[in-house]
Specification:
By secondary structure, the protein is α/β, with parallel strands linked by helices. It contains 22 helices and 16 strands. Helix 16 links the parallel strand 5 and strand 6.
């Protein structure tokens, strides 16, 4: 985006920024914050405790913020006049763009800030404090086992400090929040020994500090969004997002139902699943997406009044549009086809009742192996390139299946996969695989003749029985659990934890096999990475033949980045 405001509009007198912000000023603050964060991406990424390229926090937080800006710009034709309306757009964008655990938690924080502005035309100190209280609550709720010393602690401390010592103006409250963030971030190593050993602070917490520091500078009139280049131009029509239009003629026959009803429902603590169940019983081809504050509804019925009356029991309805289905669909379909290539899920367009499988992976060999085992769609990603919630959701939707299993294959992608599942229109279960190795074991346990629940149970059981070994190179010097890792040297990772290191690949592999208790296993499935030296495979085979002669090897060129070897022991 090249900037939609004139240079004169992009700066303000600090006195005008001190007490409260209108929607226009809050939008400028958001853009300025994203631009400021962009300059710190690499610095935040460098705070990863483990010196491996695994789910870069700075990149994930920046992409989540950028998606929030993109959602605002997609509504630039009718920019919100109220801060509470603005925050709804910001929250929606953050949800769809959330990447990795840090991105999902950041989305929850933004959702909490949105709650604080409910009913507010402007953002002031009271609204910000209310929002921070909700942010801390939602962030902790998003994590199954909250760990102190992370960005969770930082947002909680910010909320507590601002609640106990509220500023008299918005600018003062933001300053208090920044100071609280700074103190909390500096204290994170005292909560987590692994941070103290590595000599770093929590990356997610540092990201939050950067955000509040940027907001503080903006409130002082020292930061603006001049020459913004972060966001692409918005789509010219919302029809570009209506994937169901491409299937309209085969899903419901174009003339089968009399009216197409579109509207939004807003309220507090909306339960999208309950709304879906209620409207499914009254309409056809129902599509519902949203969160706990707003859901968007599209459905077909011969009795629109019945649909709207049912929706009113859940919250307020907005932007109601009722049209003859055939004429509306033909118009929107023509509009969509002028913008994007139509999506056709299969030859006959029928909803597939078999179980679909989505996995996250990178490396052509790895991807082909997963597809050969029955994975229907692979979302490109993994270490250093965590896919967003929206990308995983789109892959689920593209399968046109009634039931889908998602395997994230990285601990930092599990939260995004769960968010994508929650906001999908079919039944989705996440098998929380943390590696490609676990995914291979899970797929071996999958049975096309079994039900969704049976398969999920079997796959979870298989995941717990496999050992995941990886060989990579340290990205920097580090000390973890009294083990020293030198930049550029090999490091062996066992079940996600660095455990051995060495200058020679062969010796590191030998130590890694010993740590895994390889003698107790029968099969080793091995993917060779794109940067692995040719002699590495020969060295690996020699080690196995001499030390584990009964171990069966299956070696494939995986082509995965960053990791010379991915090994699954079963």
């Amino acid at each position: 985006m090249s900037g939609r405001n004139s240079a004169a509009d992009q700066t303000s007198d600090p006195a005008e920024l001190e007490h409260s912000w209108d929607a226009h000023t809050a939008t400028r603050a958001l853009r300025a914050t994203v631009r400021s964060f962009e300059r710190h991406i690499n610095a935040v990424n460098a705070l990863n405790v483990f010196p491996v390229p695994d789910g870069d926090t700075g990149t994930n937080m920046h992409l989540t913020l950028e998606a929030a800006v993109g959602e605002v710009d997609s509504h630039s034709g009718s920019s919100p006049d109220r801060v509470d309306d603005l925050m709804k757009h910001v929250t929606r964008g953050a949800l769809m763009g959330a990447r990795g655990n840090s991105g999902v938690i950041l989305y929850q924080i933004i959702a909490g800030l949105s709650r604080g502005t409910e009913g507010s035309e402007r953002l002031d100190s009271d609204a910000l404090i209310k929002g921070l209280q909700s942010s801390a609550e939602l962030a902790y709720r998003a994590v199954t086992n909250p760990v102190e010393g992370t960005m969770l602690t930082v947002i909680r401390v910010i909320s507590e400090q601002c609640t106990e010592n509220p500023g008299s103006t918005l600018a003062e409250t933001i300053q208090i929040a920044r100071r609280a963030a700074e103190e909390a971030v500096e204290d994170t190593p005292n909560h987590l020994p692994v941070l103290r050993q590595a000599g770093v602070v929590d990356a997610g917490g540092q990201g939050l500090l950067i955000i509040f520091a940027a907001l503080e500078r903006f409130a002082r009139g020292e930061l603006d969004e001049t020459e913004m280049t972060l966001v692409s131009e918005p789509p010219t029509s919302f029809a570009s997002d209506m994937h169901f239009l491409d299937q309209a003629d085969v899903i419901h026959g174009m003339e089968e139902f009399g009216y197409c009803i579109n509207f939004a429902v807003t309220g507090e603590n909306l339960e999208s699943q309950g709304i879906r169940e209620a409207l499914d019983a009254l309409g056809q081809s129902t599509v519902i997406v949203g969160d706990d504050s707003m859901v968007k509804v599209h459905t077909h019925s011969e009795r629109p009044g019945t649909i709207l009356e049912a929706a009113l029991t859940f919250g307020e309805i907005h932007n109601v549009r009722i049209d003859n289905m055939r004429s509306q669909t033909e118009r929107l379909l023509h509009e969509r086809q002028s913008i994007v290539e139509p999506y056709h899920p299969d030859e006959n367009g029928d909803l597939d009742l078999s179980i679909g499988i989505v996995a996250v992976a990178s490396g052509e060999g790895v991807i082909q192996a997963l597809k050969g085992m029955g994975v229907d769609a692979v979302v490109h990603g993994g270490s250093s390139m965590n896919p967003s919630t929206g990308e995983i959701r789109d892959a689920i939707r593209a399968l046109n299946k009634s039931e889908v299993i998602v395997m994230p294959n990285n601990k930092n992608i599990i939260a995004s996969a769960e968010q994508a599942a929650e906001h999908s229109d079919c039944t989705v279960r996440v098998v929380p695989t943390r590696s490609v190795q676990q995914c291979i074991a899970a797929m071996a346990a999958f049975n096309f003749d079994h039900s969704l629940d049976e398969n999920v149970a079997a796959m979870n059981g298989a995941v717990s029985s496999v050992r995941s070994l990886s060989l990579t190179r340290a990205q920097r010097d580090a000390t973890i659990d009294d083990l020293e890792f030198r930049s550029g040297e090999y490091m062996g990772i066992l079940d996600g934890k660095p455990c051995v290191s060495g200058a020679a690949a062969g010796e590191t592999i030998r130590k890694l096999f010993e740590a895994a208790g390889t003698a107790d296993y029968e099969l080793a499935t091995i993917f060779v990475g794109e940067s692995a030296e040719h002699a590495l495979v020969d060295e690996l085979e020699t080690i196995v033949q001499s030390s584990y002669p009964d171990l069966e090897l299956e070696i494939t060129s995986g082509g995965q980045p960053h990791y010379d070897l991915l090994i699954a022991l079963e």
